[in-house]
Structure formats: structure tokens, C-alpha cells
Design a protein that fits this description.
The protein is of the alpha/beta class. It folds into two domains: about 1-410, no CATH class; about 420-560, 2-Layer Sandwich (Transcription Regulator spoIIAA). Helices cover about 60% and strands about 5% of the residues. The longest helix has about 35 residues, at about 245-280.
Amino acid sequence: MFKSVFPGLNQLMNYRRKDLSGDLGAGVIVGVMLIPQGMAYAMLTGVHPVMGLYAVTIPLLVYCLFASSRHLSVGPVAMGSLIAFTGVSSLAEPGSDAYVSYIIILTFMVGILRLMVGLLRLGFLVNFLSGAVITGFTSAAAFVIASSQLNHLLGIAVGYHDYNFQMYYEIIRQLPQVHWLTLTIGLGSIVLLVVLRRWLPRLPAPIIVVALSILVVNLFQLDQAGVRIVGEIPQGFPSFSIPPVTVEAIIQLLPIALTIAFVNFMESTSIAKVIAWKEKYKVNPNQEERAIGLANVIGSFFSSIPVTGSYSRTAANYQYGGKTILSSLFTFLLITLTLWLFTPLFYGMPTAVLAAVIIVAVYSLINFAEIKRLFHLKQADGWSALIAFVVTLLMDIVTGIVAGLLFSLVVFIWRSANPHIAELGFLTDKGVFRNVNRFPQAKTFPGILIIRIDARLYFANMGFLEEKLAELTSQREEIHTVVLDMSGVNDLDAVALDQLTEWMVHYRSRGMRMVLAGVKGPVRDLLDRAGWKEKFGEEWSYLSVTHALKALGMKLENAM
């Protein structure tokens, strides 16, 4: 019982001393990454940068107690921060007291939703979102996140807009007002981040760039020249306060909370499962949802923004030697120490540098090559990715997700309503039945049409099957028997059952015959309950196509 409720604590109780050096090194490196990233993502959320550090104190500690993953690094992420900003900006002015209250309530609601997913064991839902939609949505969202930081990078004022294309227009319109010194600092930071990541990947590039930018700003007093800086960052641990939850706020924030919970759920679950597979241990998606849900709920009492598992930081935790959840506890200790002692050092940090950190962090999420590959493999999947990408890019994240999901649903319905149906012939040299369109050498039998159905039969696809049967029987006037290979049919609904019954009667009335082959147990049970033995006798079902043909007096060597 204890192990199932507190798997993270169980990891610590069974800790191996040999893992300490790896956990310590990875925990410190991830903590160093999190300091600028947490502050940057708080800025992206539209709140004071210190709230990004608050998000990796109490929430991270709570997660460590309940986590089943040994490597997942929990904290603010770019996607969730952007969705929060996009949604809450329509309700209050970013940075205002009302806005901050909405963000804290949103964190609480996201936590409750994810906790419910875990408690109700709904982790399996991760399997129902198309990978193509995720690809398109993620690529577009990364582009939108980067674009949303251009105002900080360029030193211009871009307000909130309902749709992304309005933001792009506003940025272009204000290009003549670019603050060139701010742009120089921002571009220089991007170049330095990229160079350090490529040539010195083991160094904490973000903290190095932040430190250099603070040094340059203080040395040359660039804040007096119009360069925007973070300013004063409160010291100490976040104070306890009850989120100001109201019914009105819940109603207003529910669509945003659902979107963040869903997107973050996908992100954290996928990366945790990948690392666990590599390290040959199991992650419980439901336990992870309970852990992250509690982290958000309790974090909302300590001024946290929404948190979830991060791709980049989890990868770093793994690559730098993290073995257990203790690495995340070392990260917690480093952030706590920073809040107590070192926040004054970040006073002169330019906001352009935080923008650069975000832009470089999300660049790797843009994946046009995968969209191109999807078109090559399966056009429907390619279109799913492209629609999610375009709608997210031009409209907003929520609309993009919905558009991608709706198109995927349409594709799914179309595929299920138009199942694969093949006319079979016999390969005499192999002794097997195959699709005559793929194997022209496959021999057919005089007067007999053999059809294989590769789908569940239900009300939506029976019309397609009927049309296909009519088309194939009309091409061969001598046909007197239709053999339906049902080996690929797992289920029938009532409409399909009635339709099959009607076909049996119809074919007999025309002096023809229809028989079934390879009927699976559940389908056979359904046909028995429908009284097929009484209606059609015993000779309507056979173990295989081969048995059906032998019963019809056919010899396989007599194939045409």
C-alpha cells in the first residue's frame, strides 16, 4: 500500500549509494537550467519571473513523493505557459493583481483535472490522440511561442490579440520602432546559446548567457539606455495563501484548464515513458497524473504557475547521469537556495535574454521534416498534421487542437466507413489465398467470388460493403456463390447483423448462395443468438476459405 501511494518516497528508502554522484550532478545541472527557464516561462505566462521559481519549489517536492518516474523533471513549460497567457489575457490585464489571481486559480484547476485523470485511471486516453496532430500542433505552437517573445527581443510593445495572425501584423507594423540595443542583446544571446549548446553541450548555456548579460548591463548601465530588465525579485520562500477560487472564475477558466491539462498530460506522459523504456522500468501513467495533479493543487497555495514534465529538462536529467527521483530533490534544494540568497543577483537581467532562452528552447520542437514524412507515408496523416499546424499558427492553440482532432475524427470515420475489402485468389505455388489486385497470378474459381473483409462491420460501412459486392458480382455474370472471408471481422452491430441476414435471404431468392468462412468466436455467438442455424441450416459457416471451397466441391488445383 505504502509503495503504491508513495512510489517516489519508496525510491529514496531503497536508495543505492552508487547512484549519488549521477543524481547530484544531474540535479544541479537541471537546477541551473531551471533558474533562467523558470523565470522565462513565468514571463511567457504574463506574471512576475519569480513565480517561475516558486513553481519548482513546493510543487517539485510534492511530485517527488508521489512520482513513479525516476527521471521526469517537473516544472513550468513553454506550451502550458503560452496557453495560460493566451486564455487569461482575455480576462484580465497581464501582470495585474486580477491576472495573477486567475493564473493561481488556473494552476489549482489544472491540478484537480489531472488528479481526477489519475484517480479515475484515465491515463489510457493518451493513446487516442493522433501522433500526426501532435506533430502539427507542436510545431506551430513552438513557432507561436517564439513569435510571442519578439516584443521582448525587439524592444517593442505588442499587446494581447485574440488571434495569432493579429500578433504577426502588429509586430510587422511596429518594426520601425525597434530598440536596436535590445535587439543586439537578444540576438547576441541567441547566437551564444546556440554556439554553446553545439560546441560545449555539457556547459549550462542559459545560466552563462544570463550571467554575462547581467554583467554587461550593470557595467555599462544599459537599463538607463532603454534596455528592459527584470528588476527586483523578492527573496525567500513563497508564502502560503488560499487560491481565490470562485464559481465565476471556474466557469471562465475551465476551457483553458482543460486545454493545458490535456496538452501537458501528453507531454509529460510521452517523455516519461520513453526514458523508462530505455532504462527498463515501468511508469504508471495514472500515478504520474496523481503526482503532477497534487503538485499543481498544492503549488497553487504557494503562488505557482502550472507545472508538468518537461522534454528538454528530462532529457538533460537523463543525459547527465540522473538515476532516481533524488536528482529532482537536488534541483529543489538549488532553487530554494537561490530564492533565499541569490535573487538580488538577477536584478539587471534583460528581458530580451529571457526571450532568447525561450526561443532557443522551443526551436527544436519545430519539425517540418516529420510533416513531410507523414505526407509521404499516408496523406491523411499528413493533412491532419498540416491542418493542426496552419490553424494553430494563424488562429490560436485551442482552435488548432480542436481543428486537428476534428479532422482526425473525420479521417477515422471515413476509414471505418470505407474498410479494406479484397477479392481473393489462390496462389498454387504458395498454397495461400491473396488479394488478386496485389497478386495478379492468384487464381480464381469458376462461379465463386471470394471476398475478405478487414474491418469491424457496423451500420456506417455496410452500405460500402454492399456496393462493393454488387460491383464485383456484376463483373462476373457466372457467379453463383459468394464466400465471405470473415477472419478479419472482430465484431458486428445489430444493423450489420440484420444486413447480413437480408443478403443471405436475397442471394437465395436469386438462386445464388452466400457462405461465411473463418468466423471468429464472438461473431459466431452473435449469429447463433440471431437464429442463423434455424434460418439457414448448418451449411453457411466454415472454418476457413479452404474448408468452404472443399464443401462446395472445389479442388484448389482447379483454380482458373
